[in-house]
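User
New here, explain this?
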Amino acid sequence: MAKNEVITKSNKIVRGTINEMTAKQKNLMANLLAKLVYKSEVKFIDKTEMSLSEITEIMELSKGGRQYTELSKCLVTFGKNASIGIPYINEKSSTTEFDWIPFFKKISFRDNKLTFLWNDEMKPYLQPLKENYTAYLLGNYLNLKSIYAKDLYEQLKSYEFMKHRVFTTDELRTVLNLKDKYNSNNAFMVCINRAVDEINDKTDLTVIMKKKYITKDRSRHLNAIDFLISSKQKLIEYWGCYLTEEQCSFIVEKIHRKDILVQVGQMKKDKPDIYKKYKHTYHNDYDIIMHLVDEDNEKKEFLNSFPNFY
């Protein structure tokens, strides 16, 4: 699959969430999420299909006589692990607990083709979103080999616009599934350092860490890490608008609104005064385009609410 495909997810299933998937299973999920095709601006197709050759490559299955045996085991374990733990505060105990929601209602294999039927409960978190969502390129995610780098990258991408995010060590241990691993601070920091190094080397983010300590029993203890987040992506001109590759791919390939992109580029050329008014409010070309997309969607929704008398 093309690595410039964009994955979009609600922050509700990104920030502070946990999952039990292996690195290969995470890659499979990422490919399935990137394959989501929207019927329109507000709905997406209920199922995603994948060929035998695709899943064989992603999961590194044998291509000989054991292929179907390995595939069967792969689908069973993936089906069990393909869920997300969404945090909530238990009011009685004031502790953080998790609601687990499966991604799929059904996974089937027929005629050398796999069909993944999405769970209805996941749709609000995966369908086209106007706000509070995280988007990233499939290629950047697949470049990461460590499960800790993959999970940390997704967390940091969701805070990219804020330029930094402070995680307590307990929060990091939760979101990276490190509760019973790397118990000493030194071992813990080796794990985090490796994940950050991999993100810096292989993705669109540059991450710098600042450790925060507290004094306890006359000695310093690591309490939190402040992640400073910046983007390596350069703005490229597309039809007169300046966007990152990720933004252009989202507009053109994911929500199919190249028309609005071209419209804004033409506005900059033919109606600079109107463009400046938009720029004063929305600051950059991407935000202007998404605002006009939302306006157009609302207009269509309004017109479609009337009966067709013809």
Notes: The domain at 144-232 is CATH 1.10.10.10 (Arc Repressor Mutant, subunit A). The chain has three domains: 1-131, 144-232, 236-304. The chain has a mean pLDDT of 90. The longest strand covers residues 219-231.
